[in-house]
Amino acid sequence: xxxxxxxxxxxxxxxxxxxxxxxxxxxxxxxxxxxxxxxxxxxxxxxxxxxxxxxxxxxxxxxxxxxxxxxxxxxxxxxxxxxxxxxxxxxxxxxxxxxxxxxxxxxxxxxxxxxxxxxxxxxxxxxxxxxxxxxxxxxxxxxxxxxxxxxxxxxxxxxxxxxxxxxxxxxxxxxxxxxxxxxxxxxxxxxxxxxxxxxxxxxxxxxxxxxxxxxxxxxxxxxxxxxxx
Length: 229
What we know:
There is one protein chain. The chain is of the alpha+beta class. It is built from 5 helices and 6 strands, in the order ααβββαβββαα. Strand 4 and strand 5 (128-136) form a beta hairpin. Helix 1 runs antiparallel to helix 2 (28-51) and helix 2 runs antiparallel to helix 5 (194-221). It is elongated, with a radius of gyration of 23 Å. InterPro entries: MAM33 (IPR003428), MAM33_sf (IPR036561).
C-alpha cells in the first residue's frame, strides 16, 4: 500500500543504531565526517525510495468545490466554493496527529483515515466567519463545535485559541444539532468529501516527505570540509 511505503521509509533508520562507543577510538574530525557520510547516504536512500513510490489514483473534488491554488505547498485551506453570497473554505488534518495512538501503525490504519475537517463560512462585509470543527470518516461526518471567529487568512484560524469555541455540540438539543448538520449539508459538506481529501492528504504528505529528505541532505552537505588528498 502506498501509505505503508511512506511509513516504512521513515521507520528504517540504520544510522540510528550507532552508539558513541563505536567511534571511541576515532578522532573528533573523523567522527564528524563518518557520521555525515552515513547520514547523507541514508537520506539519499530514503529519498530515492519515496520518490519512486506511486501515489494513489487521482480523485476529483466534489462538484462546486475547487482546489485552492498552492494548497499542496501550504498549511491553509484546501477547497473553496461559493454558496449564494457566502464563501466556504475547507481545511483538513489527521486526527492521529492531534491525538496519537499507541504507535502500532500496522494495526491502526483506520486511525489514519479519521480526519478533522475545518469548515469556514464567511460573508462579504462581515468581519467574522462561522467556523465548524468536524470529524470526517469514510461513511460519516460529525460536528464537534461551532464558533464565530474573526476572519483570518491562510491557516491562522487553526491557531486561534483565544476565541470561544462555543458549547459542547453534544450538549445542544437534538433539533439544533440537526439544524446545524442540515446547514453544512446544504453547502455540500458531508462524507462525500472523504475520498478526495484522503487522496489529497496522501499526496501532500508524499511531497512534504520527499522535500524533507532532500532539503535536510542539502543542508548537511553544504560547506562540508574537503576530503584530505
